[in-house]
Structures are given as C-alpha cells and as structure tokens.
C-alpha cells in the first residue's frame, strides 16, 4: 500500500518526501529494503559516431570486391589441393599446395591427413624443369594469386616467385653480344652474393643504388647487372625463409604420423627435392585438364596482364575498378569443359553515339567462356564411343562484361540477337553438317560503346536450371549472361 494512504488510515504523520527524489525512480518502502536502481539513460551518439555506422557507396563497393576476392582465392586454393591429391596438378598447383601448410587463411575443413606425405616438388626445382611456354603460363597464374592475396607472408611468397620466374625466362632467351659480355662476370657476381644473408643483401642493395645515382665514374653495366642479380638473390632468400617455415610445419605434422620421416625431413637441407616426373609417376595418375591459353603483357607500357587480345583499339577501359573486377573473374579460371571465348565482332551499323560529345566513349572489358562438350545423338552413338569421342560442340556461352562507371546506374544493360542476310529465327541457310551463327549485341549506354560477339544460332535452354539454362543479370556493375 502507498505509505501516504497507510498513514491517513492509521492517523499518523505521512513520511517526509524527498524533494530531490527522481519521480521516475523507485518509491521508498519501509517494509522492503531492496529497491531497483535508478535507470541511467544511454548517452546520445555523436554525429561522427552516427555517420560511422553507415558506409558510402564506394565503401560498399570496396567491401564487396574484397569479399569476392577472398571467395575466389579460397576456391582457387581448394581446386589446387584437389588437383594435387588426384595427381593431375599444374605447376601453379604445386606452388599453392606447398604454401597451404603455413597459410593462416586456409579453411581447416579442407585439410587432409595424407597431404603432408604427398611428394611435391620444391619451388626452385619446379621452375628449373619448365620450358619457356610453361613459364609464361605459370607467370600469369602467379599474378592471379598475387593480385588476390592479402596475407603479408603469402604475398611475399608470390612476389619472390614472380622475380624468379622472370629471371628464369630471361636465361632461356637467346642473348646477344651484350648479354654474353655480361654473362662473363656472372661467376664473380655469384661469389659475391651467394654467401650473403637477406639483411646483408638489403644493405648491399642500398649501397649499389646510391652508387648508381652518384656522379662517380663507375662501370654502369657492371653495377646494374650486379643489382639485377642481387634482386634475384634477395627473392631467393625470401623464398627460402618461407620454405623453411613450410618445412618446420611439415615436420610437426609428421612427428605424430611418422617420426622417422619427420626426423629425415628435419635433417635435410630444405624441402624434398622431388621432380614433377616423380610426382607424375605416383599412383592414381589422371590426365590433367587443359590449361587456359595464357595471355600476358611483357612490359609496363602495355595493357595489364591478360588483356593483350583486347588491344586492337585505343579506347579500352583500363580503369582501376574495371581491372579489379577483371582480375577477380580471371582468378576464377575455367571449369570442366570450358574455354576462354573471344569471338568479338565489329558492331554492325556503328555510328557515333549522341552522347559522344559529352562523355568519352570507351570499350567495355570482358572475360567470356564457352562450354564445349559431346553431343551423343543417334549418329554419334553409332559411330563413336567414350574412348573415341566425337568432335566437341558448343553447348553454351557465359558472358561477363564489366560496366563499373555507368552514368545511369538505374538502367541495366540489355542485349539483342542480330541475324544477317534477312534470316529469321528458326530459318537456316547453313549447308549440311554446319550451324548458322548470329551476333549477340550488348548495349549499356554512356560512357560505354556497344559490343558484339559471334555465337552459334540455335534454340537454347531457357529453363534456368541450376547448372544449365539461360540466366541474365546485372549485379555489382557486371553484366553476366549464360
């Protein structure tokens, strides 16, 4: 009962009120000594704190690209692990598999107890066994990992390998008289640099750069060659540092599994010197999947790596946003039965767009794939089998065209099919055994020009199944269509 009402009934004086009491706080009760504490209102957020809770559009795009990069890198590592375990690995898979033992960002659920006993070539022995074409392909694969990697130690590993691959490719190229003259001092350079540690090499690098920038009368060719060799030895030292960490991790894993192998590995000078041929002769060997054709740029003035086939015109879109999207898509690679598709055609009836005086027209970049496979119709079932399959035919296309700088982002890019010579849908002018082709034209709007590709003209599956069928979307400034 209220103390005031109780006092009125019993005829005694009401308790004295506390003039300073919070009217929203708990009332005093003489029969109960426990009362709820006064509630304190939470502090009002400042304007800076309120703004920090929300991301701008640019920050959201950066966050999305970073998350996508992590996913693509994780999938690339997982595919490399699977190919190594199934004995159908490419050179890049060996390098990625070696790194997994010290990779803090790997998914532990992808680990296999038998991975530590798989004989994998060491990085240096692997590079020595490759020819020029294989090194060129490996260089592109390493750049994909280097672009996506954020772990400092992992990135240092790929950076060192890039330097060693470049040096190895340079050695395989025939050298002219100047190269032969510089090669005469190679033995002296090796004697100077080979016994030095990484710290000593970094100190010597500073001294050489200081000497080259000074006005002293020096043999410039000798010191420049010494600097180039020093950077290679520096990359070797960094690679050895990472390989020592890989070896230590493998020793720890082997101690519980096979102590004798662990002791042998611990006493060895480095990682086991296994060649790719030794690995290929192991059980359960399967045929490797065909690699995607490499395309690279050899100098800094050329377009970014993998874009040489797009450089027929001078208005290509090489912005940083486009490059990030393109590199992420390249890192996804090609799947089973897929090939890179570059069947670009001139856009028919091209005229200067009306907005050309306001925005500089640019050509969008793309990374397209074509799905190839066997068509087991009655004729092929009669004349072919799985050991002697029929020729592959096109089973579908996957277009990925990047439009990060669209002026009007509320309008999604569209496409249309163009059949030449008055041919209509369903009609065929092709001879027996051939298929008609048509153009698929993508239209986005300023500042992007239209782009067209030649594809097989047939009735496609529009059922939008999980792995097949038609799908057209415009998400995160990328036009995707399968």
TrEMBL record:
Q: Which Pfam families match?
A: Cactin_mid, CactinC_cactus
Q: Which domain of life is it from?
A: Eukaryota
Which GO terms of the cellular component aspect does the record hold? cytoplasm; spliceosomal complex
| Domain Splicing factor Cactin C-terminal residues, every copy | 355-476
What are the Splicing factor cactin central domain coordinates in residue numbering? 56-242
Point to the regions of Basic and acidic residues compositional bias: 16-32
Cross-referenced InterPro entries: Cactin_C (IPR019134), Cactin_central (IPR018816)
> What are the boundaries of the region Disordered?
1-48, 285-314
What's a GO biological-process term for it? mRNA cis splicing, via spliceosome
Family membership noted in the UniProt record: Belongs to the CACTIN family.
Alphabetized PANTHER family for the sequence: POLYGLUTAMINE BINDING PROTEIN 1/MARVEL MEMBRANE-ASSOCIATING DOMAIN CONTAINING 3 (PTHR21737), SPLICING FACTOR CACTIN (PTHR21737:SF4)
Q: What protein does this entry describe? A: Splicing factor Cactin
């Amino acid at each position: 009962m209220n103390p005031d009402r109780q006092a009125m009934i019993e005829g005694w004086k009401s308790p004295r009120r506390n003039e300073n009491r919070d009217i929203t706080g708990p009332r005093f009760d003489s029969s109960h000594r426990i009362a709820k504490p006064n509630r304190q209102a939470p502090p009002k957020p400042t304007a800076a704190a309120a703004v920090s809770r929300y991301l701008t559009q640019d920050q959201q795009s950066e966050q999305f690209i970073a998350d996508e990069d992590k996913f693509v890198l994780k999938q690339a590592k997982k595919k490399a692990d699977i190919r190594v375990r199934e004995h159908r690995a490419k050179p890049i898979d060996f390098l990625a598999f070696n790194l997994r033992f010290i990779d803090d960002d790997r998914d532990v659920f992808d680990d296999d107890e038998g991975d530590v006993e798989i004989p994998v070539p060491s990085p240096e022995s692997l590079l020595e066994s490759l020819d020029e074409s294989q090194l060129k392909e490996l260089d592109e694969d390493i750049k994909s990992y280097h672009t996506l990697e954020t772990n400092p130690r992992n990135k240092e590993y790929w950076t060192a390998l890039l330097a060693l691959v470049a040096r190895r490719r340079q050695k395989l190229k025939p050298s002219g008289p100047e190269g032969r003259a510089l090669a005469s001092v190679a033995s002296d350079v090796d004697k100077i640099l080979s016994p030095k540690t990484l710290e000593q090499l970094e100190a010597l690098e500073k001294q050489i750069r200081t000497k080259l920038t000074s006005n002293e009368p020096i043999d410039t060719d000798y010191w420049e060659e010494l600097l180039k060799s020093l950077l290679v030895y520096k990359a070797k030292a960094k690679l050895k540092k990472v390989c020592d960490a890989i070896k230590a991790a493998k020793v720890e894993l082997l101690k519980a599994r096979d102590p004798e192998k662990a002791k042998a590995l611990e006493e060895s000078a480095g990682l086991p010197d296994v060649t790719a041929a030794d690995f290929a002769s192991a059980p359960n060997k399967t045929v490797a999947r065909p690699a995607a054709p490499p395309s690279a740029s050899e100098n800094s003035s050329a377009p970014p790596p993998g874009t040489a086939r797009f450089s027929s015109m001078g208005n290509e879109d090489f912005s940083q946003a486009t490059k990030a999207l393109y590199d992420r898509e390249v890192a996804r690679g090609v799947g089973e039965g897929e090939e890179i598709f570059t069947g670009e055609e001139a856009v028919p009836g091209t005229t200067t767009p009306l907005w050309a005086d306001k925005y500089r027209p640019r050509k969008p970049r793309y990374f397209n794939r074509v799905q190839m496979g066997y068509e087991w119709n009655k004729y092929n079932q009669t004349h072919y089998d799985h050991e002697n399959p029929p020729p592959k035919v096109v089973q579908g296309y996957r277009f990925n065209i990047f439009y990060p700088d669209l002026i009007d982002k509320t309008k999604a890019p569209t496409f249309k099919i163009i059949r030449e010579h008055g041919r209509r849908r369903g009609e065929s002018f092709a001879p027996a055994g051939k298929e008609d082709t048509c153009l698929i034209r993508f239209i986005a709007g300023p500042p992007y020009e239209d782009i067209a590709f030649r594809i097989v003209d047939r009735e496609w599956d529009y059922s939008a199944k999980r792995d097949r069928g038609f799908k057209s979307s415009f998400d995160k400034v990328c036009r995707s269509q399968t």
